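Notes from the 1:1 (GR / supervisor)

We went over the backlog. Supervisor wanted to see one worked example end to end before approving the batch request, so GR pasted a single chain during the call. The sequence is below; no edits were made to it. Supervisor asked that the structure be written out right there so they could see what the output format looks like.
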Amino acid sequence: MDNIQVNSVKAWILAARPKTLTGAAVPVLVGLTLALADSHLLHSEASGTFLGNGVPAILCLLFALAMQIDANFINDYYDFIKGTDREDRLGPKRACAEGWITPKAMRMGIAVATVLACCIGLPLIIYGGLEMIGIGLLCVIFAFLYTTSLSYLGAGDILVIVFFGFIPTCIPYYLELKTMTWECILAGFTVGLVTDNLLMINNFRDRVQDKLSGKKTLIVRLGETWGKYLYLGIGILATLLCLGFIPSGKWVAAVLPWLYLLIHYATWKKMVKINYGRELNKILGESARNILIFGILLIAGFLASLFV
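Structure output shown during the call:
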């Protein structure tokens, strides 16, 4: 990919990191499917209400995707100017560091992506009230704070659980049903945990370079051994928490995610065997795939509750 033209369309597509969009879409779709299940679409008059709210569902999904791309641009630019993207970087190549996109162009890209995300999210005030502005602003603010400061303090994992778990799962649910349930919060937590493994493997791979750059991620703070078992443990915890759907009768949603645990364990075994180096990027790809599989299993479980 060294022949990529500077600031070309291909360069921008690579900078957007399409593979990471799974982590943005899954929680929104989980929240919407849970709302569908709880509205008893096939069994009550509430179906008309749910189907009438297709617009906020689409807006939530588009906002999540736009914010993910914006966050990727921000991460690319600020890691470059802070010197975190060192020459000994083990992860996938970054646009600014490789010279595919100039810093000036990336600043403009960040501005455009931020404005676009805000324009997509603004109409949600029609369905959720003015508080949607506050939630949108928090998403934008923490997208910047994550790369510029909080990820260097080891707070990245908390932000992932909040902004890739609770918020994108619970807000679509609330906009559809105008209420919030403990099951929605639980679903957001499980998705956030699974998504956090994407950050975990990134930080595990880059632990040596991050330590040299002064980036005190959770893996740097806890060390290599703890990092290995933390990756495994997060997947196990997310699966166990799905048992919380049993009391409401969503037992399929409680059982299906255990299939995810099988592939999660297999991915972890590969991670432990590789331990260090660029080969861990394979685990990054598998982790992104696992997020999608977990989401599909959870969504299938919620849909099954409409019939079982």
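Supervisor's comment: DSSP finds 16 helices and no strands in the chain.
Batch request approved.
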